[in-house]
């Protein structure tokens, strides 16, 4: 499956889950800031991606899971270096470079771009994801 | 409760419930009343919002039951809502909810709404699919977020327990999940 095919399927998923138009779903579009996704939408997107690409997405593999609750990873609303290290390891499809400059947890939504979803699916398919 | 009886409950998979639409319900006296100014007669139509609520209760109880009511289940999203026909007094609504995907965070359900129009003996009863309602539920664990949830937010009240029991389904595990919300009854 080419990157264009993957993008196209993800675009369909996001149009369906978020009620946005095709043209709103650009590679750089951020799920929360630009496409107005809310927390339940992340679960919906995850479920729909599973159906679209015929693989299972374990909790915490696509989006950060429960990091906010762990004091080792988040202190005073900022992600600790240890927390950043952990996130980069678990979530290699996100680009943390700008987030690292000022790792306010409340701003983490800015890294959830459409491109990062494409990246995730590409990696998973390349790894021969079991259905 | 906006459902009257469960017909089917396959744990973790599917639930079917019915709601009889009755002229005795107050909501039908107001939706819509007669209008003397225009000479328009009363037009009792079961409001669509309660059809959505009926499906939410059917699907929500299915999702809660799937995990033995250990977690609060909250309706979080209506993904699809299509209703093509009104339900009127004397008809029965039948809700069929299935779980399409569930994990620790929540569940996605698909729902079909049918209308049963009762007929006299000897005639076949028309059953028409009148809509589709797909929803998403969130599993809310008190401890995870560190928040306390007030009692009235708890979807699974005694009314639902009575409903499941009177429909002939197992509710033995409900007591342990209730976390001593109610004073224990003296047992023999």
Walk me through the structure.
Helix content of chain A is 45%, strand content 3%. With 131 residues, chain A is mainly alpha-helical. Chain A has two domains: 77 residues, Non-ribosomal Peptide Synthetase Peptidyl Carrier Protein, Chain A; 45 residues, no CATH class. Chain A has a two-stranded antiparallel ribbon. In chain A, strand 1 and strand 2 form a beta hairpin. Chain B is of the alpha+beta class and 188 residues long. In chain B, strands 1-2-4-5-6-3 form a six-stranded antiparallel beta sheet. In chain B, strand 1 and strand 2 form a beta hairpin. The longest helix of chain B is centred in the first third of the chain and has 19 residues. Chains A and B meet through helix 2 of A and strand 3 of B.
Please give the alpha-carbon distance between the first and last residues of chain B. 30 Å
- How many helix segments of chain A? 5
CATH level-4 homologous superfamily of chain B: Hotdog Thioesterase
Estimate percent helicity of chain A. 40-55%
- The total tally of domains of chain B equals 1
CATH topology type of chain B:
Thiol Ester Dehydrase, Chain A
In the CATH hierarchy, what is the class of the largest domain in chain A? Mainly Alpha
The name CATH uses for the topology of the largest domain in chain A is: Non-ribosomal Peptide Synthetase Peptidyl Carrier Protein, Chain A
Largest sheet of chain A: 2 strands, antiparallel
- Output the structural class of chain A: mainly alpha
